[in-house]
Amino acid sequence: MRDKLKDYIPENAFQKVLRLLDDDNLVVKIKRERKTRHGDYKRLLNGQHQITINSNLNEYRFLITLLHEIAHFETYKEYSREIKPHGKEWKYTFQLIMLPFLNPEIFPNDLLPLLAKHFKNPKASSDTDANLALALKQYDEPNGKTYVFEVPYGSTFKLHNKRIFKKGNKRVKRIECVEVNTGKLYLFNPNAEVEIVIPAKAGIS
């Protein structure tokens, strides 16, 4: 499986990643797309450690996600379970792991300043960084999806489960959206991927 990673990450990152994965108790698996996460890490009952990554990520998002999960593994080895999952120990470990990859041989120049800013204080998900998430999206294969913050005010959109919402006002960190069928108000992460149904000028009033 580790050799297959070459197909999912930038070529110049491959050898660096292999060195990070040089542990007999660490397994990496590539999964079909999961709507709620890009990847995850867990300790298995047999004592091994497993990282899973979604197969549909572009090479830069795949690499960031993989390093994110490797940081969880390294943090567990150092501190065991007595820490917060995305606490200061994980942040510091992730920063150290990411640093050798932040160069133009691996990431495009348009991503590097955004990554440098993000990794001053890495979050639980790069999706919470609107500027970085949008820049990374430019390297995705076309999928007909857009981020909620890009949806015009008053337009309707649907989620992967086919529920339809109408976009409303922006709060400090979330966006108000009303579910059309029920009239219930929900607060959306601005970087949630959705599919536009009706443009604002033809939207539901």
Summarize the structure in words.
This protein has 205 residues and is an alpha+beta fold. It has helices spanning 14-20, 59-79, 88-98, 112-118, 130-137; strands at 26-31, 39-43, 49-54, 146-147, 156-158, 164-170, 175-179, 185-188, 193-198. The protein folds into 2 domains: 3-137; 146-202, SH3 type barrels. The strands form 2 sheets. It has a 6-stranded antiparallel beta sheet with strand order 4-9-5-6-7-8, with no helix packed on it. Strands 1-3-2 form a 3-stranded mixed beta sheet, covered by helices on one side. It contains 5 helices and 9 strands, in the order H-E-E-E-H-H-H-H-E-E-E-E-E-E. The model has no long low-confidence stretch (mean pLDDT 90).
Taking pLDDT < 50 over at least 5 consecutive residues as the criterion, the unreliable ranges are none
Strand content: 15-25%
Specify the biggest β-sheet. 6 strands, antiparallel
Apparent shape: globular
**Order of helix and strand elements from N to C terminus:** HEEEHHHHEEEEEE
The structural domain count equals: 2
Structural class: alpha+beta
Order of strands, main sheet, comes to: 4-9-5-6-7-8
The radius of gyration computed from the alpha-carbon positions, rounded to a whole number of angstroms, is: 19 Å
Total count of strands:
9
Mean pLDDT: 90
SSE layout and pairing:
Layout: H1 14-20, E1 26-31, E2 39-43, E3 49-54, H2 59-79, H3 88-98, H4 112-118, H5 130-137, E4 146-147, E5 156-158, E6 164-170, E7 175-179, E8 185-188, E9 193-198
Parallel strand pairs: 1-3
Antiparallel strand pairs: 2-3, 4-9, 5-6, 5-9, 6-7, 7-8
Helix pairs in contact: 2-3
